Design the sequence.
């Protein structure tokens, strides 16, 4: 059996490894557009911050390790067409037959329709190549100040990274808040943290033009915004990279539609990762939610099914976490904005809690927002913000696990969670937040 | 309605608070043998280590806060009898009527049947009074060396505490390993950590006699063990404190039997916490598993039901975590020894994993042991050891949540856990450990 995989990032490599685990004799060929198979693109900001110094550190696995698994690697090999009828893909002036095909082409950076995005010194940041170009530009031009357009995960991590590197940084967000994946009160804490660390933050500011002036780029925006910088990074989100894909059903933003076995509308063609619509475990419908952790899961599911298995993707909850300076922000499930978007009745209660018993040195405060259905008490989601060391990401994960299992908010109190005064409280903060939610919700309902 | 509560620690206070939440006008009287209501006895080692300096810091709530909730506090008030027929309790030369009674008398330290346990300078450590007596003795006798009998949670935390305080410490355990709540390989890592920090550790050594010699206590044990120290701490476990309880059904070690509503065999009498048998969520039977986190949950359930509710305790999984120096050890569900005790078929697979992406500074290794049923893949339990900052306790909690929901080991891979390179991997270590378990288990089954 011959398996071809287009794309060598998270989804592709996970599928390839799974196929070889199940079928040692499988012929697996992986085609990737660049020469960096299975690199951690989530690690890019830490290379540009100089927290990590070697490009190869970013490889989840070395090329040697991938080859040793018997996976055929075709680097710098862009596939430009899929012949669905004849089961062939083509690239680099030749074509290849496949029995099973995985499309794992990922996503590409969105570029806003404004003047000047093509100017030298203006970058997007998605792949290792982008990273190397930015690094080279910073060194060549002795860049000591930069403007970041977009206050999402990449924009925020890059603000942190460039400040750590010693640059002056301005960050501009068109919406009223940075980090739109969490609700406003938490986003405001993130904004304060950025400002405390010297980032010049503007919200409600839409960039309208980038202009080249001697030695610099002048950026104009709404509300008379103007700023001159040596480098401009556009980080306003991504869209699925499916330009290659025809005669296969697509959906939202051109993302490929798959079922939960990661099968596309065409037999023997699977798709996974940032190029597809993702099944949401709570909403029970497809959304576009590009995340590395999701790509790994979907790739593994695709690989198993391509090799004859029958497994289903159990869905995403949009579980995400980001560290910005010493602040950690995590979320899972639905937040207020999600509930409004999906027209769900909701109540959100915010709690300020200590990460461990206050009497033991080093206790830090967490803010936990729990969102649930005021009538059924169904647990919709949670957001937590606090400091590194407060086990925020894994506290979100407890709630994610609960949502996967259709918990009501008060049921969080039933979980036998670990306790020692140096790390938690007899009721974990997550449980105290659930108790507060339940009490307030009950009180409001009885009024 | 008149509610009486015997015991003012975790179970008692949780019940009292819950009763007052539900029934503002309830008459709630709490009787406690000492004068420290709702103190964190789990925090005692950190007072003796001098990491915390004020006795009152250990109070989960101040006396004023408890009184402000309308709870009647009767301190230094030992109840010595319960008149089940007439619904009365008696203590301090008077008796009190109750409509509903909660027994939350907790546990007392076990004292081994050896000579010399009554000598001055020999202590057990359970309550705040014990702590204060030890503190006074250390100061009065300028104690600079101590011997701890028992390598369980309290023994280990006290070894850590007394080393931090500058004492020379010897720790002696009768069994072949310290920390019997985890399997041997993890216990050996704990032993190394103790030794690296200067604790003189002996296992397989049973203490046989404590002898008074001038200015010291000479301790004799098996294998020619002998050691002279100024202070001896006995920390060999606890037993339920139910000496007060007659005409109510008791079970294992004299622990009170309750159903999952925390009702005893006698109408209108409830019991919760370390004085009862605890329902185990996985085993679906009662065990004796005294833990503060469990006492809080059971107290809250008892309180709600006493005030007319109908809630059931969902059970313990023996989830526990302890920090010893910079090491954290957590566990939930069943380990190898548990499986052997309950005669369950099991497979345990150990994995060494990084707590976050290795390329980002500060990555530390974790050891994760996953235990499951080799035939059904049912998830039995997990143990994790690693360093503070590696989110070990909340990683155990993800698994605890999964066990509460009857997961099979490979299902851990379906959970949408958060990821950022600074805090985890695209597959969380817990999931990589589950994958390794599944692969090895499948390989062994196919042989």
Sequence:
């Amino acid at each position: 059996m011959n398996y071809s995989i287009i794309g060598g990032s998270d989804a592709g490599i996970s599928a390839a490894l799974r196929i070889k685990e199940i079928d040692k004799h499988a012929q697996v060929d992986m085609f990737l557009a660049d020469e960096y198979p299975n690199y951690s693109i989530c690690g890019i900001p830490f290379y540009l911050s100089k927290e990590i110094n070697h490009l190869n550190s970013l490889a989840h696995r070395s090329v040697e390790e991938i080859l040793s698994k018997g996976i055929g690697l075709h680097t710098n090999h862009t596939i430009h067409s899929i012949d669905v009828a004849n089961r062939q893909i083509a690239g680099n002036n030749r074509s290849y037959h496949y029995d099973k095909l995985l499309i794992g082409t990922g996503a590409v950076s969105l570029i806003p329709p404004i003047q000047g995005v093509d100017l030298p010194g203006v970058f997007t940041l998605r792949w290792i190549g982008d990273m190397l170009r930015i690094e080279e530009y910073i060194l060549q031009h002795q860049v000591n100040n930069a403007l970041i357009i977009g206050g999402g995960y990449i924009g925020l991590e890059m603000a942190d990274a460039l400040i750590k590197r010693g640059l002056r940084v301005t960050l501009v967000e068109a919406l009223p808040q940075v980090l739109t994946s969490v609700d406003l009160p938490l986003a405001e804490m993130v904004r304060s943290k950025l400002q405390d660390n010297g980032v010049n933050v503007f919200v409600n500011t839409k960039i309208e033009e980038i202009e080249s002036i001697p030695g610099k780029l002048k950026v104009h925006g709404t509300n008379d915004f103007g700023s001159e910088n040596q480098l401009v990074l556009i980080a306003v989100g991504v869209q699925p990279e499916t330009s290659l894909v025809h005669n296969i059903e697509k959906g939202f933003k051109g993302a490929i539609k798959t079922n939960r076995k990661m099968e596309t509308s065409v037999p023997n063609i699977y798709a996974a990762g940032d190029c597809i619509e993702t099944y949401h475990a709570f909403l029970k419908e497809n959304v576009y939610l590009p995340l590395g952790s999701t790509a790994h899961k979907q790739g593994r599911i695709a690989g198993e099914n391509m090799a004859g298995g029958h497994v289903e993707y159990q869905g995403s909850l949009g579980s995400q976490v980001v560290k910005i300076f010493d602040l950690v922000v995590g979320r899972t499930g639905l937040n207020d904005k999600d509930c409004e978007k999906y027209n769900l009745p909701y109540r959100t209660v915010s709690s300020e809690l200590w990460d461990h018993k206050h009497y033991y040195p080093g206790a830090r405060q967490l803010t936990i927002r729990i969102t649930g259905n005021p009538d059924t008490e169904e647990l919709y989601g949670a957001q937590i913000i606090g400091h590194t060391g407060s086990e925020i990401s894994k506290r979100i994960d407890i709630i994610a696990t609960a949502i996967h299992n259709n918990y009501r908010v008060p049921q969080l109190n039933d979980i036998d969670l670990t306790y020692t005064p140096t790390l938690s409280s007899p009721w974990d903060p997550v449980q105290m937040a659930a108790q507060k939610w339940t009490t307030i919700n009950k009180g409001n309902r009885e009024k």
